[in-house]
């Protein structure tokens, strides 16, 4: 691969006069570079680090990193090997040619096993024993396949890029399998040695199904390949050739992928392992060449944390706008135990994350950073998947203890979360009837809902459902919608129907034809125009369904529009009552000026409370028809001496309009009770159905 890469660079930049020079291995390449026989070279980082250690004052310098090569350990299928240490007992080895990078990496690997290369002696197989002459630097795949099949070779080691055609051929021969490295060996191979280098090899994984007969990922080490130059080389030339070599490598990888594309069980992985920036190592670098942009690897984790904090801040602000903090505060006051248990469980997960990171970071790519460790522990605890399980015994013990946190976490939080969100999932009942419908939303609507759901009303008449039909679902409205979560009983039977209050479909979706009463609140943005359009659409719906007793109360912002609603009320299929807030305020101010203290009287009549009187209208019993208002009022007062029901007037439809005839005089409309009249009374509590007395037959009538 080095030779092909050098040839590709030479073809790409012919004007630079690049000519590849063949060597017997990495050692010879470094020696030629040291003597000035070549200007640039490729070598594995672990070999280069060892060379720098043993060659003080060397003129060889590092320009940058090109790619990664992985340690492949091939074991004959008939040989039983359970862990890496079992390799020491095998008979015959192939560990690369003398002076090659594979030979030097293999030597370090054997040292970690306690089996130095020198102790193998005659057990090492050389490529010169091959019956076929191999080209320099190539993999003796024919020799290896032959020796494995003849049971004369037990293990072979090769440092190369995963998915190369020769390795695919070897794995496809059906004679060998790849051996994954155990955690102890990985720890030894990737341990930091501050004396002369820092992590010259890194943890890598050959993905599953890269080769034939390889259904599981293979844990191993990856060795960076460096681009080297002499110390007197011009930095601009070195930078140019470094970039050209990287581009040539990318093209070679693409060609290799095409070469193995037709083999179903052989592919080249897309991702390379993450390694510490070269700038953190103790290699010697060429002056004037910035190595691998060391600033970005340091900033990348910081940027990730900043992005996470921004996302959490945005979520917190959004939750604050929706009133989540108020719900959490209520839940905290009601029961603090779930919060404390959730905090303890979170601390437990954090402790397991940190412990497994410290135990696994040097040998397990899934625990290489705190973020990776947290993600791996989360998957492991809550799904039980083994793909991210620790390698070391200590790490497995910690993760096993932490595994108990998963069910505990769900057991503690599931009920609490259900209680937190259950009211958000509440939906308006289908075919709702006899409910109050509010068209449009304003801050005053919340007070209307509280009055309609006042405890006194609920005690006497039960709870009526209140539905708000609006096309402006503000944050304030959502908070009131969610207020039923134990915070405000007035909003327990409160629903929102989203739509235009003047649209027929939206009104039908809110079951406007089956309501008890409809309140149209004034809309500051659209004025009285929307109110009038809503009344017209309600009239149309009522006529289509044949309803003749629809009750609508319409609020106006401009008193001048009251005459429009009064005209509509004449043929409205039911009772249409216009209300002008400005007009009522004007009348109240005038009365207050004429009679001191009268404001308190009106406020008492309008506000529902157990110690004040309110106004109610009641259906008259048939026997009261034809009686005078005064006689029947006296009968009502006599019936309720302790909790008085005080009649004050009559409600009557006159010329299609509802009129309140208060304290009618002799001969005036309302003096004699007629069919369709309703009695207007003052009372402390809502009168029960049938509360009005029924006159006895033969009682005198006083016209």
Task: Give the structural class.
Answer: alpha/beta
Average residue pLDDT = 80
Helix content: 40-55%
Please report the number of helical segments: 23
Major sheet characteristics: 7 strands, mixed
Per DSSP E runs of 2 or more residues, the count of β-strands stands at 17
Based on CA atoms alone, the radius of gyration comes out at 44 Å
- Amount of beta strand: 15-25%
How far the N terminus sits from the C terminus, by CA atoms, comes to 120 Å
Q: Would you identify the regions where 5 or more consecutive residues have pLDDT less than 50?
A: 129-136, 698-703
Shape from CA axes?
elongated
Structural features, described:
The chain is α/β, with parallel strands linked by helices. The protein has 23 helices and 17 strands. It has helices at 2-12, 26-35, 45-54, 101-113, 141-149, 165-171, 183-189, 235-260, 295-321, 324-334, 337-360, 370-383, 393-402, 405-421, 443-452, 455-461, 475-481, 504-509, 528-545, 562-569, 581-594, 598-606, 629-639, and strands at 40-44, 60-76, 93-94, 155-160, 176-178, 202-206, 218-230, 436-439, 466-470, 494-498, 517-520, 550-556, 574-580, 614-619, 646-654, 657-662, 678-683. Helix 5 runs parallel beside helix 6 and helix 11 packs across helix 12.
Brief account:
The protein is of the alpha/beta class and 703 residues long.
Topology readout:
Elements: H1 2-12, H2 26-35, E1 40-44, H3 45-54, E2 60-76, E3 93-94, H4 101-113, H5 141-149, E4 155-160, H6 165-171, E5 176-178, H7 183-189, E6 202-206, E7 218-230, H8 235-260, H9 295-321, H10 324-334, H11 337-360, H12 370-383, H13 393-402, H14 405-421, E8 436-439, H15 443-452, H16 455-461, E9 466-470, H17 475-481, E10 494-498, H18 504-509, E11 517-520, H19 528-545, E12 550-556, H20 562-569, E13 574-580, H21 581-594, H22 598-606, E14 614-619, H23 629-639, E15 646-654, E16 657-662, E17 678-683
Parallel strand pairs: 3-4, 8-9, 8-11, 9-10, 11-12, 12-13
Antiparallel strand pairs: 1-7, 2-4, 2-5, 2-7, 6-7, 14-17, 15-16, 15-17
Helix pairs in contact: 1-8, 5-6, 11-12, 11-13, 11-14
């Amino acid at each position: 691969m080095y030779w092909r890469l050098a040839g590709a660079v030479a073809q790409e930049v012919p004007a630079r006069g690049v000519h590849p020079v063949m060597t017997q291995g990495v050692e010879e390449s470094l020696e030629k570079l040291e003597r000035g026989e070549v200007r640039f070279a490729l070598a594995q980082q672990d070999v280069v680090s060892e060379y720098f250690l043993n060659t003080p004052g060397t003129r060889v310098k590092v320009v940058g990193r090109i790619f990664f090569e992985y340690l492949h350990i091939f074991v004959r299928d008939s040989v039983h090997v359970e862990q890496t240490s079992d390799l020491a007992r095998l008979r015959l080895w192939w560990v690369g040619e003398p002076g090659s990078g594979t030979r030097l990496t293999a030597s370090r690997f054997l040292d970690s096993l306690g089996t130095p290369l020198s102790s193998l002696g005659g057990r090492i197989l050389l490529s010169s024993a091959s019956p076929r002459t191999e080209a320099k630097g190539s993999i003796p795949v024919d020799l290896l396949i032959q020796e494995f099949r003849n049971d004369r070779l037990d293990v072979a080691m090769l440092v190369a890029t995963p998915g190369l055609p020769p390795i695919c051929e070897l794995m496809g021969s059906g004679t060998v399998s790849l051996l994954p490295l155990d955690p102890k060996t990985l720890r030894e191979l990737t341990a930091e040695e501050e004396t002369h280098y820092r992590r010259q090899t890194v943890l890598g994984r050959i993905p599953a199904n890269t080769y034939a007969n390889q259904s599981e990922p293979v844990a191993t080490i990856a060795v960076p390949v460096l681009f080297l130059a002499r110390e007197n080389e011009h930095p601009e030339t070195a930078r140019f050739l470094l970039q050209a070599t990287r581009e040539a490598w990318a093209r070679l990888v693409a060609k290799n992928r095409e070469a193995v594309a037709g083999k179903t069980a052989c592919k080249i992985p897309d991702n390379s392992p993450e390694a510490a920036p070269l700038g953190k190592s103790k290699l010697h670098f060429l002056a004037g060449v910035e190595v691998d942009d060391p600033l970005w690897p340091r900033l990348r984790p910081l940027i990730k944390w900043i992005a996470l904090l921004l996302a959490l801040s945005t979520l917190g602000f959004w939750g604050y706008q929706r009133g989540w903090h108020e719900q959490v505060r209520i839940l905290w006051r009601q029961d603090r135990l779930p919060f404390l248990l959730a905090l303890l469980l979170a601390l437990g997960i954090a402790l397991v994350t940190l412990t497994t990171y410290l135990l696994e970071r040097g040998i397990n790519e899934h625990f290489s950073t705190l973020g990776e460790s947290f993600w791996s522990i989360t998957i492991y605890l809550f799904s039980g998947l083994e793909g991210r399980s620790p390698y070391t015994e200590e790490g497995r013990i910690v993760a096993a203890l932490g595994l108990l946190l998963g069910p505990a976490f769900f057991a503690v939080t599931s009920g609490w979360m259900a209680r937190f969100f259950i009211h958000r999932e509440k939906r308006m009942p289908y075919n709702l009837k006899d409910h109050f419908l509010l068209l449009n939303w304003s801050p005053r609507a919340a007070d209307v809902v509280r009055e309609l759901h006042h405890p006194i009303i609920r005690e006497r008449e039960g709870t009526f459902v209140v539905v708000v039909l609006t096309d402006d679902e503000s944050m304030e409205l959502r908070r009131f919608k969610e207020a039923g979560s134990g915070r405000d009983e007035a909003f327990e039977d409160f629903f929102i129907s989203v739509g235009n209050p003047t649209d027929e479909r939206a009104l039908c979706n809110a079951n406007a034809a089956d309501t008890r009463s409809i309140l149209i609140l004034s809309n500051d943005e659209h004025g009285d125009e929307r109110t009038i359009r809503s009344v017209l659409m309600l009239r149309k719906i009522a006529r289509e369904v044949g309803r003749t007793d629809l009750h609508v109360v319409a609020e106006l912002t401009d008193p001048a529009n009251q005459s429009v609603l009064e005209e509509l009320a004449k043929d409205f299929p039911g009772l249409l009552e216009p209300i002008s807030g400005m007009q009522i305020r004007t009348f109240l101010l005038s009365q207050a000026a004429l009679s001191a203290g009268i404001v308190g009287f009106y406020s008492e009549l309008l506000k529902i409370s157990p110690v004040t009187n309110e106004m109610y209208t009641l259906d008259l019993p048939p026997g009261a028809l034809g009686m005078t208002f005064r006689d029947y009022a006296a009968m009502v007062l006599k019936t309720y001496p302790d909790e008085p029901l005080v009649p004050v007037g009559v409600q009557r439809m006159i010329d299609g309009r509802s009129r309140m005839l208060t304290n009618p005089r002799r001969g005036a409309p309302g003096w004699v009770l007629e069919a369709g009249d309703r009695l207007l009374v003052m009372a402390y509590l809502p009168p029960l159905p049938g509360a009005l007395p029924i006159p006895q037959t033969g009682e005198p009538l006083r016209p």
